[in-house]
Amino acid sequence: MEIGKDFKDIIRYNKEMTKPMEDKLFFIDKLPPGDRYLFVDFGCADGALIQNLIGIFGNKSCRYVGYDCSETMIAFAKTSFSGGPSDSVEFTSDWNTIEQDIIEWKKLRYKTVLILSSVIHEIYSYGTEESIKEFWEKTKDFDIVAIRDMMYADTIKRESNQDSTIRIRKGSSSSALRYLEQFEERWGSIDENKNLVHYLLKYRYTINWERECNENYFPISIKTLIDKMEGTLGFVLDYFEKFRVKFIEEKIYEDFGIVLEDTTHIKAIFRKR
Asked: Of 30, 35, 143, 200, which has the maximum CB count within 10 A?
């Protein structure tokens, strides 16, 4: 599942992903104060989230692991991370290393926190049925799982507002219309509201369009996630919020004059029973 090699501009991609960083750190004020933590950022990319966590929690009482299945991203993180890896920070694409870290730090009474920020949809997009199953099994080792990702509520499944589809088709340049055509060939017509929202979330990422177009931003519903975490994996939902990302909303309105009605993202914290 090496997903980083085909990036045409890895620096620009990572810069784009850091825009909602404050939002990605939603869980920090919801962790019990005074505890020591082992943070594992699954899909760490350039390590920016870990860099921010260190600024908040410091190096003395917490440990940080950046994991990415892409060797390209791990190499990039190691070279771009401020100060480089240290005794409290490591970057790896070997999950066996992380399993040993979990065992070691749990013995020292550290709470283990798995951070899943914009990665669940990638797991489903690039993984096999077996690797997806293995991914969910990995979550069982953690005390806390913090999730921020694109996810839909079942109310998204309806016909699109016709005015919105007209605005997209008439407001797009000839090159943008080619991207739209490719999207509809892959996912279906934007006359279906779920497809329309899906397209509006990804139309800006033209520099890696082939990759982005083929990613499924909405592989599972909110209900499916909660049922899996609570019913199958043994967690309890401790915090939940569904929302729209402000700068995405504003960009969609700027480009098409469309007011996004459906929520597109969630934040959730699950704690092990």
From this structure: 200
CA–CA separation, 206 and 43 (whole Å): 21
Name the β-bridge partners of 42. Answer: 67, 116
Q: Which of 136, 146, 113 minimizes the C-alpha distance to 220?
A: 136
The arithmetic mean of pLDDT across residues 138-142, rounded, is 96
Bridge-partner residues for 62, per DSSP?
A: 37
Final residue of a domain: which of 109, 129, 150? 150
Considering 150, 168, 199, which residue would you say is the last residue of a domain?
150
Q: Are residues 38 and 119 in the same domain?
A: yes
Task: Find out whether 102 and 67 touch, Cβ atoms under 8 Å.
Answer: no
Checking DSSP bridges between strand 62-67 and strand 37-42, what pairing results, if any? parallel
For helices 193-202 and 174-187, angle between their N-to-C axes, nearest 10 degrees: 130
**pLDDT by residue (tens digit) across 62-102?**
999 999 988 888 888 888 776 655 678 999 999 999 999 99
pTM of the model: 0.89
Residue 34 or residue 133, greater confidence: 133
First to last CA, the chain: 31
| Buried b / exposed e along 95-126 (16+ C-beta atoms within 10 A) | eeebeebbeebeeeebbbbbbbbbbbbbbbbb
Phi, psi of 147 (to 5 degrees): -120, 130
